[in-house]
């Protein structure tokens, strides 16, 4: 998985190779809203939840209210 350029879907698995990229940011903004922003705690959550999906990540970001 190239987090910089590969398509990301809700079914995409969070892999050990996960990187916070502009492509990932676009994905979250598409699914959460233009006001989405990363914070340190959420970035750590992404790194420690290998095997979950990007749907799980969207749900977690919404739970954390990372969009206004």
Report on this model:
It contains three helices and no strands. With 68 residues, the protein is mainly alpha-helical. The protein is globular and about 30 Å long.
Structural key phrases:
single chain; 68 residues; mainly alpha; 3 helices
**Count of spatially separate domains:** 1
Taking pLDDT < 50 over at least 5 consecutive residues as the criterion, the unreliable ranges are none
Extended strand count? 0
- What is the helical fraction, as a range of percent? 40-55%
Give the terminus-to-terminus CA distance: 30 Å
Radius of gyration (Å): 11 Å
Please identify the structural class as seen in this structure: mainly alpha
- The shape is globular
Write down the secondary-structure element order: HHH
Main beta-sheet annotation: none
Q: What's the rounded overall pLDDT mean? A: 95
Share in β-strands = under 5%
* Annotation field: number of helices: 3
Give a quick summary of the entry.
The chain is 44% helix and 0% strand.
Topology:
Elements: H1 22-32, H2 40-48, H3 54-63
């Amino acid at each position: 998985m190239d987090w910089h350029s590969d398509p990301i879907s809700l079914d995409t698995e969070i892999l050990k190779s996960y990187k916070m990229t502009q492509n990932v940011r676009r994905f979250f903004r598409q699914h959460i809203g233009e006001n989405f922003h990363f914070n340190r705690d959420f970035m750590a959550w992404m790194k420690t939840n290998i095997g979950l999906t990007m749907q799980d990540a969207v749900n977690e970001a919404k739970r954390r209210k990372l969009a206004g």
